[in-house]
């Protein structure tokens, strides 16, 4: 059987008419022929196996270059893409088919099959049965959330369709608000019925609540900045406030930022801040993230704009500093991979003096030396390392992993956080600021712990100081307070799970990815002190544009519907501008 390239409403025909055995040939849809039998759904072990597929499908650090951490480079935080020096918009023209559209509907169908199967069998109305339905509905909500973020209005499919379901198969897209409200009902059912309260690696009530927070934060701000719908915005933002304020009591902010990203599974599972994680284990399930950030290929470093976004330790931004030097010091440095001294010496630029006066999250994210083509910095027993911006990525490194694992594709085994306390804290701060209910107590409870582990002066972490600190870099048309909350969120989640891109979308700020409007996202490190000149510079800075430009238009807020879908279903309309 050919891969199911078309999974949208019209193309359910392709699924419905395929034989059960055919499904075995499609590794994206491993439901066996047994699921067609009513008896299959009467056994908890069978249903659990289908529910486990949802966890296996979570990408996190990925396997190769498909991870949602670091590898999602379309933002103002990163320079370049994995395959080239330039990360352009996801689409330049409407594709014929797309896994971005297909794959969520595959998982939605899996969820609908589980729901229907359990409801029609002996597990219906039992605690076990409702637990399985809760897990399926949670994951269905996650897939619809993904689709709505990408496409806006999408077909709402609530049952496994057959070829005679023509009203749905050939129906129009459903209004995004209707889809999001439907998904919220799924989430609330999951919270009420999933039997496990806490678990780092299985679906639980707390994980569903954490997802609800992110879901409602997106919808509440999208409703405000895109739809000017005050009532809807306030309804969703109050759900953020109420859900996260209670949940964070069980997941307090820890004191080690980097350990969230470079720990082994056992250590991350023991981290009290972590709500839900993707577990990787040596020689069993591994990824390639460390290898890519230790690669001889040019890795995707952060931009000058991202570097400049970090506060100084005195709690003030770059614009309010008397000394704005960002040049570093030319040195002959000793390699330190694994924290062990080496006899290898290399010319480079030391920026540790710049990092020492900044938010400590920055020194966790990048190395204290510059790395770029023409001036490579080599660690013992590794290949030469370069960065497309000059800033090498340190955030995910774990030097206790032997290089024959860390430096090999598909042999890295650090674990990935998916939901954790900091995400709750930032959501509370933003929701309360948007609602106009934020207090000094909120700043103390939710921002101060993040500033504290970042080494920033806590005397500045008050509502009055944040409201009174006018940063000329604020180009989003929001209050000083909200700007500082958005800054903290950006710095806290830099390179994480494609968060920055979707933040810019929901805030109606995607034009910040336009080179002409924000030229510092096309620049990297200050290389004026470099002993070896880089191949491309613009003024004192490494030019990371690759000689290309990225121009914004409003059409980028929605991705194009695959044209084959529109050919099959004439009621589907293309998104504006495509």
Q: Would you give an account of this structure?
A:
This protein is mainly α. The protein is 39% helix and 8% strand. The chain has 22 helices and twelve strands. The chain has helices at residues 12-16, 20-23, 44-56, 99-119, 127-151, 166-169, 176-193, 205-225, 230-247, 259-262, 265-269, 289-293, 304-308, 352-355, 360-365, 403-406, 421-435, 440-453, 463-468, 480-492, 499-506, 563-568; strands at 274-278, 298-299, 329-334, 345-350, 366-370, 377-378, 384-387, 391-393, 416-420, 523-526, 537-538, 541-543. The chain has a three-stranded mixed β-sheet with strand order 2-7-6, with no helix packed on it. Strands 10-12-11 form a three-stranded antiparallel β-sheet. Strands 1-9 form a two-stranded antiparallel sheet. Strand 11 (537-538) and strand 12 (541-543) form a beta hairpin. Helix 9 (230-247) runs antiparallel to helix 17 and helix 17 runs antiparallel to helix 18 (440-453). It is globular and about 70 Å long. Mean pLDDT is 89; it is low at 1-30.
* Class computed from helices, strands and strand pairing: mainly alpha
Order of adjacent strands in the largest pleated sheet: 2-7-6
Q: For the report, how would you describe the main beta sheet?
A: 3 strands, mixed
**Average pLDDT rating:** 89
Low-confidence stretches: 1-30
Radius of gyration: 24 Å
The number of helical elements comes to 22
Q: Separation of termini?
A: 31 Å
Q: Compute the number of strand runs.
A: 12
